[in-house]
Design brief:
The complex is a heterodimer. Chain A is mostly helical. Chain A is built from two helices and no strands. Chain B folds into three domains: 164 residues, Glutamine Phosphoribosylpyrophosphate, subunit 1, domain 1 (4-Layer Sandwich); 214 residues, Rossmann fold (3-Layer(aba) Sandwich); 103 residues, no CATH class. In chain B, the strands form three sheets. Chain B has a seven-stranded antiparallel β-sheet, covered by helices on one side. Classes of the chains: A mainly alpha, B alpha+beta.
């Protein structure tokens, strides 16, 4: 959990910056080919008849 | 007791205005008329509030949520005018399961499937319902009985003088993930924060709330977001903990969630000896199931809900839909299970050995040419099958609110590039940015219900009911199931001589037969 010490605006800014970095990392970690393949794969939450899905999501 | 039940007679169409009596007693609004019309709705002061009153024009109006709802509100509304015209309209969430049946004499509605079933003077077997009960699909809304239907999201039912019309809603404006308007991943945090803030303001701080958590990513997100804003710590977290290794790793995550949020943790141990799937049926305590798939988790959830009710929880925040909003769906045919795409899938499917060639042929043949309802505003898996789980909560006075059931959030997420949705990467990034516990967003292990289910079905506890049902099986008479093969499969699974995943199909068969045999008066099993 992010520390609640310090001005709230500053805290929010840190989280925003960290999130922007994470988004950049996701893009960087996936090649264009893989991104294309993922985009063309039908993927339902329950891919089969029985995935023993988590009770609460 | 049912949350809502009604039998509205077509006789004496003006009896509502002449002999209409509305009472408020014993925790229910009740409406009675000179004729045989009766309605009962549970009173609820917490979100979503229920109401019942008579308008100046003499119409009776009741329901839950806003009286004059906007499109994004959660609501159900029933209007009965003095001439006996009935109109039932509902929202995109359809949190309350709603079953209905129309006979020449009356309209029967309830969230309680057993109530509608019992009120019907006669039932006709719906073969499509039998097929989908033996091999369910998330898009199915079929019942085993032709007379019983489900009122789905945004549908409007009108009934007058014995004639019923169900108006379909407009399909959402985009049909597949690639068709959703493109979203910028950089906006995800702002959108999710805004959505959670709205839940925090409208639901969390105004009700006696609890959170339901499994230790997984989806259900942990809302309590982690809300915790710093809660001025008090009496918002507990409830969980069901699996036996064995899964329970150990699950408890580590839950304790991490509790210590990070500062919220009190209440756990219920999923006891394989008492909470095995369909235990209520096998112990002879409850005669009705709507779909057996919903019954897999009923026993442990009912126990947890008991704990919630004992602590006077009125709303529970859940993580349902956390997977669904990030799904990648390429066509409406796949989502709503119709047309040549679905027919091909059924042809290619690997069927359990004890389902006969006749079953396979009928299953393929029953593929819908056109969808039975339009694309919903939420994922089909959230709104296709009526979520009868919700009854377990609602009938104990607890309203489940999913952190992710929001049409705009769903549309936004569907517009994200697929690799941000895959593995829920964007949600994990959200957790990481906030510094939430890594054990939750980057887990070593994902616990699930599989071992509990397999152990339960292999335990021998189902022997008596299986052999009793098999002695009288309707699915065998229909030619859909080879009983000898089914019993061999069951025994081989118990003896570790066959793939235990087949026990899922045995389970589906048990649930289907219980329902069929009760419905046809041939159920002989007693505990």
């Amino acid at each position: 959990m992010v520390s609640l010490e310090g001005p709230i605006e500053q805290l929010a800014e840190v989280v925003e910056q960290k999130f922007a970095e994470e988004v950049t990392q996701i893009d960087a970690a996936v090649s264009a080919e893989v991104a294309e393949e993922v985009a063309h794969t039908d993927r339902e939450k329950s891919s089969g008849f029985f995935d023993f899905r988590n009770m609460f999501g | 007791m049912a949350f809502l039940k009604a039998r509205i007679s077509q006789h004496q169409p003006d009896d509502i205005s002449s002999g209409f009596i509305l009472r408020d007693e014993g925790g229910y609004y009740t409406l009675e008329s000179k004729g045989s019309t009766s309605l009962q709705l549970s009173k609820r002061a917490a979100y979503p509030v229920t109401y019942a009153h008579q308008t100046q024009g003499g119409a009776f109006v009741c329901g839950y949520g806003q009286y004059d709802p906007s499109p994004n509100d959660e609501f159900l509304q029933i209007i009965i005018n003095p001439q006996g015209h009935v109109r039932i309209q509902r929202d995109a969430f359809a949190t309350l399961p709603l079953f209905y049946a129309c006979t020449p004499d009356e309209l029967i509605i309830s969230n309680d499937y057993g109530y509608v079933f019992s009120a019907l003077p006669s039932k006709t077997l719906n073969l499509r319902g039998v097929l989908s009960s033996l091999l369910p699909n998330t898009a199915d809304r079929d019942s085993l009985w032709s007379e019983i239907s489900v009122l789905g999201e945004r549908q409007v039912l009108e009934w007058f003088e014995g004639k019923m019309v169900v108006h379909q809603p407009k399909a959402r404006g985009w049909s597949s993930s690639p068709q959703a308007e493109e979203s910028d991943p950089a906006d995800f945090k702002r959108i999710l924060d805004g959505h959670f803030s709205s839940i925090l303001e409208n639901v969390v701080t105004r009700n006696s709330l609890g959170f339901e958590a499994s230790g997984g990513l989806d259900s942990a997100t809302l309590p982690l977001y809300c915790a710093p804003f809660l001025k008090y710590s009496d918002v507990p977290i409830f969980s069901i903990v699996y036996p064995g290794d899964f329970g150990t790793s699950q408890l580590e995550k839950l304790e991490s969630l509790a210590s990070t949020t500062g919220l009190e943790l209440h756990t219920v141990f999923a006891d394989p000896a008492t909470m095995y799937p369909l235990a209520r049926m096998i112990q002879g305590r409850a005669p009705y199931v709507h779909t057996s798939t919903e019954e897999i988790y009923t026993e442990p959830i009912a126990r947890m809900v008991q704990e919630m009710a004992a602590r006077h929880i009125s709303v529970v925040g859940t993580g349902l839909g956390g997977d669904d909003i990030f799904e990648n769906r390429l066509s409406s045919e796949q989502q709503l299970a119709y047309g040549h795409v679905e027919r091909r899938r059924r042809r290619m499917l690997h069927y359990p050995e004890f389902y006969t060639a006749a079953f396979r042929a009928a299953y393929i043949e029953s593929t819908l040419e056109v969808p039975s309802y339009p694309l919903p505003l939420l994922p089909v898996s959230l709104s296709g099958q009526p979520n009868t789980h919700n009854n377990i909560y609602i009938e104990r006075g607890i309203w489940p609110v999913s952190a992710y059931a929001d049409p705009e959030l769903y549309r936004f997420c569907q517009g994200l590039p697929a690799h941000f949705r895959a593995n829920k990467n964007i949600l994990r990034a959200y957790h990481s940015a906030y510094g939430f516990p890594e054990a939750i967003y980057n887990p070593r292990q994902n616990e699930h219900f599989g071992p509990f289910f397999i152990e339960s079905l292999s335990s021998g506890r189902y022997d008596d009911i299986i052999y009793s049902l098999a002695s009288n099986a309707l699915t065998a008479e229909l030619g859909y199931v080879d009983l000898d093969m089914m019993l061999v499969t069951y025994e081989q699974c118990k003896a570790n001589l066959a793939d235990k995943m087949q026990l899922y199909y045995v389970f589906l068969w048990i649930g289907t037969e219980i329902n069929l045999q009760i419905g046809t008066g041939r159920f002989k099993y007693s505990a």
